[in-house]
């Protein structure tokens, strides 16, 4: 007998999302079909109006998990007493979004009159709000812990977002605990972060010299007139300030004074101290280095890219790769390149990045005449055939696609999986049934974070069978980031695309997976719509070309319609660029004008005398470079499933 309050959750198990065949449904419970009212849906509607009493009333008989979904939302909205927060965290310690919930609790914490209770709430965590900070400082002082109160104030003062009133409240609470050095540190951090309004609030608290420094940095950031005079007014003792140098650098970049910007970057790139925040310069550093490379100045490009002074981070990995690439392909210095590619390999862990590091180590070994080392590095890279450079490595070794990618193992059985017993799963099912898939996915992705491979596979199967391929892909990517490859989940074919497409099905699948992750109702900030993320104007042109009705709302409602128009656009690109996936993917992502320009600039990748792998790396836009690589991965895998046993031919796919 199913408990009454669980009926809405298990109704989801019987009701697929759009696009799912009903023969996938495993639980025959006919009495659920008559149920039409969903208590949680009513509660969510009330919650959206912040009618928390109405929301609670709506889920009175829906069971404790449904009630706690509403309580979770209420507490994350900053409602409730400290007792409410403490009780919820004790009941649901494994639910998602608890960091925000704890932050929202700080208003309630500030109302607590017991210092020990306030400090117990925070434990080792730092307050995230002014209310929490002041409450914690007051509690430490009440307990005679002056040093802890001062340390807390000093640390929070540097980074915390403060209105003018909040700033005054913190200053009054701090008294002499905050020193002039603390004020300078806060002002400097605010200027680096571009929080100009808060920076201006700090000006009366710092010395005249720091005021002049701040005014110059603000004027540069805001591109005001008279910046030269303001820079000249900065005292000599502060003239070498890294933040001022960065503001001048950014100003020159915005004004297209590239040579002047490069001059500043070279001057400052002697140490992490002279850069101030090496990570702040990293994106522009890569752009400028690539620009110098395109201008035929490889040594200058290398010097700029390599002097980044970054610790382990994604920016460091990208600049180490770029430094190695320039050294190997443009400077013909494989020894130097190998050093960078090894550093890259030591700083990354995901299959995509590991394969890139190993592939390029192999290329460097090849140029050094180290055949065995090159083969070993290619073999290591080829273990990652869901990654672009892993596929290229496998191609160089003459390998076929891995069997598990060509014929994915049968989808795991989820019906007895441990995750079904979790209240997180029950909450997700209730949210699906209440037509809130975004929060449902959030719960299930959180659930997956600590699960092992077998349960991840079962959870991915669950997502596919219940008609949420978007969740399946997200789970597959989450697993891949941990080194767990679940082929049927990571690269699914969810049955959303019709058979009568204008291009080969594997390409349409690869584009849809990259564009929307198979989310049929996706809407991008730029206005791209649906499965294949079509702009309305493009959709109208393709519908007219196919003789189909123009139905913009259908782009997010009917994935088959969307796929027909998206595939027609891919076919349109093929009329100009032929079968080259490098050019067609670039055109789909950046518009056809971009690859036309890049052909002129870097050569035509369809020609045998142009290295297509280098050509992709020369694409100036990081988003488009990445897009070409990810689409190529998907295309190769989906093609292999249709033509098993064929040799890998990634270079041919790119070249066309």
Automatic annotation (TrEMBL):
Residue spans crossing the bilayer: none
GO terms, molecular function: hydrolase activity, hydrolyzing O-glycosyl compounds; peptidoglycan lytic transglycosylase activity
Annotated Transglycosylase SLT domain residues: 502-605
Alphabetically ordered keywords of this record: Signal
Any matching Pfam family: SLT
PROSITE patterns referenced in this protein's UniProt entry, alphabetically: TRANSGLYCOSYLASE (PS00922)
Domain of life: Bacteria
Signal peptide (UniProt feature, chain positions): 1-21
GO biological process, one term: peptidoglycan metabolic process
GO cellular component, one term: periplasmic space
PANTHER family, per the entry: MEMBRANE-BOUND LYTIC MUREIN TRANSGLYCOSYLASE C (PTHR37423:SF2), SOLUBLE LYTIC MUREIN TRANSGLYCOSYLASE-RELATED (PTHR37423)
Family to which this protein belongs: Belongs to the virb1 family.
Protein name in UniProt: Lytic transglycosylase domain-containing protein
